Amino acid sequence: MPARTDADGASRGKCEAVEPVTTMGADGSAARPEESGTALELLVHGVGGTTPEKMLDDPRTVRITGDEVAAVFRRADDVDAEKRPRDGRTGPVPEAYVWCNLTSGNGTRALWLLLLPFMVVNLAHWMRPTARDRTRTVRFYGLLVRLASLTLTVLLVAAACEVALDLAAWQCAGTRACAESHSWLGFLSPDLSDGGWWSRPGRRLALAAVVPAALTGLLWYLSHRTWSAYESQQPMARHSEPEEDNDRTALGRPGFWYGRRLVARLRAAHTAAGLLTIAAAVSSTAARFDREPGGPALLDPLGRLLEAGLVAAGVAVVWVVCRRGRSEKYLDRQLDEHLVRRLPLAALVLLALAAVYAGWERPEWQSHGRLSGDATFGGIAFVQGLLVVALAVVAHLLYRTHPDPRAAMRGLAGPAVATLACALGGVMSGGVSQRVADWLDGTGATILGPPVLLTWQASVIPLVLLVLLAHCAWLGRRTWRSGRAQRGAVESEYPAEPKDAARTRRIARTRAMAALTDRGPRLLGVTSASTLTLGAGALVGALTSHKTPARATEGAYAFVQGAADTAQALGSWLIGLGFILFVTWGRRAYKDPSARRTIGILWDVGTFWPRAAHPFAPPCYAERAVPDLTWRIATWIRATRGRLVISGHSQGSVLAAAAAWQLEPSVRGRVALLTYGSPLERLYGRWFPAHFGPAALTALHHDVDCWRNLYRLTDPIGGPVRLPGDCGPEVDREPLKDPLAYGRTDLHPLPSAILGHSDYQADPVFAEERARLLGRLQPDVPGPRSQDDSGRSSA
After folding, report:
1. Which stretch of 46-50, 391-395, 420-424, 481-485 has the lowest confidence by average pLDDT?
2. To 10 degrees, the CA torsion angle through 332, 337, 340, 343?
3. pTM over 0.85
4. Topology adopted by domain 39-106+619-777
5. Rounded distance, CA 155 to CA 555, Å?
6. How far apart are CA 644 and CA 635, in angstroms?
7. Tens of pLDDT, residues 314-360
8. Beta strands of 628-787 (E only): which ranges?
9. Taking the domains of the chain in order of start, what are their residue ranges?
């Protein structure tokens, strides 16, 4: 990189150390804060969180700004450091930004497990490939993801309708043997209640609709509550930079971390979609009965009119989802209040009308068979398959415009993740339906059970797991061979140490295991491809045979029939086991803070991105954390004109980079970055190339004053930034030694641990690089930057 010239004319490299600046007044007194050149190190922790006492290495800490959810802490002795002389202090004033409660707070966070498919499909929105001058194609990509997200909401509500309306109210309550074994259904049974008022089929369905309606209300409540706490946090207002600069990454746009308007619109649309799904499930069976010969003459046109209203409302929901995407170029503070209120209200009115229509007296109406679950779930699966295929085509077109060899799956990561989201939704729906059916029916075979399609989908789970096990075995063999190949390299890094074969094997094996992270795209590709292929086969088998796999293969070869029986039984068992584990984990997370913190780690990674596709996904904590960091950095620099280093570990480095992009250019140039164990390129750059690709990271390096990145070969998460051209060597330091000592030494008399992703501060290199960054920054306004060959200012 070109050198920068100081005010005295001396030229030095970008990250070259300089002597600290003394800041005493003419009379020997301390200079004012704005002239003191105070140095600040803003520490940002990674996934899992920690305490301010551990981050600051001091049991006495004070919260200087923030609240109980996210705050900045200092040591008690450093609270007023800017107002006092340096007191012999040689290092920077450390501050700790603690944000772990954003993802692992109170027990209600356990309910977020229900939102896992929504979180996964929301990630697909941000995984699009890098594209230039393809605005319409990019918008179409986002539209397809939003439509796929809408189908997941419909799928979840349809599964609740299957459980409450079909299995409980229609099948079990309509069968004497099943109702007798469940006394709480007695008042709904025509036989046990002697034809009571609630025993009519339509009224049973209308009453059972309370369950999926309550689920929809719960989703709305969770989304609205988190919306008020997260999306309502406004970022620092600033002017938009030139469009050619913002094209490098959207994370630098003023409105990127403020998606309040879009989330409100999508929440209204998805809530209405859930209510309309319930209304359709309640009224469709009654409408079919009314259309049969001899049906009620008056109710038939009312049913058709109600169906027309449901179709019109459904079209309005799709229109709202398609109409508007994200507004990122400016802070969009508007809210579509009429739409947000009236659309769910209209759907609720239609649901009430559907309940009244279904509950109307029909003396000849009897419940038998199943409700139309196969057609419903089959239609949802078919639409999801079409959307995923279309998304893959669009992603491929975007990737071809600007190929990035480091992009995961050649730009197809988004469609693959969307496929997994749909599969997760199907497994959760099928698991709940199968477990409830087994609970209601017991071993008596008194009811037909869930739709045939759900049984077919459960039967392909063992096949998918078999493919994954085979691929994992292949990865295990590759890892073992890689570990053997690295033993020589490990020993060469410690030439003066006596060799220990066991110690060498352990270090080499740790490095090989850490490299498995780079195999993630292949594993995702195998999983999504097998899921899509076998899922399509399950859909075809269910719609053509209308029988379960075991019955559909009756009369076939013994091997085929045995395989079908085994797959069906094993799939049902696996779904049951998964459902039990899911409920158990959620219950434990509700009561156990440590388990809740484990779930919080999942959200740390999965909820960094705003809710651009699904409003019921867990909230984006970065919409609180990034404005927090931006405000703190900008106000501190303006008040003190001091030096600042953002020191980010793991996910904290991602938050640090996002905050740096949001700063004004004049402030951004006074900030240095120190990242360690950082997934900026290894994970985010590969999986989210449109936002963390090489161009975006190169621009960040040019804009901040200096940037150094530390990593280890034993770290499964962090890695090099790999900036192209002249930027690379100055950002990435060579891999740190891990362990610090191979054997016992005077400095390490006990065997040194293999640190991997943790304790980067234990390495002396950390303090060395931090000192270089602090020495590089100046307390006064930075000098003009030299120009590179392209005419753009260089850092």
Report:
1. 46-50
2. -140
3. yes
4. Rossmann fold (3.40.50)
5. 34
6. 12
7. 999 999 999 877 777 777 777 777 888 899 999 999 999 999 999 98
8. 643-649, 671-676, 706-710
9. 39-106+619-777
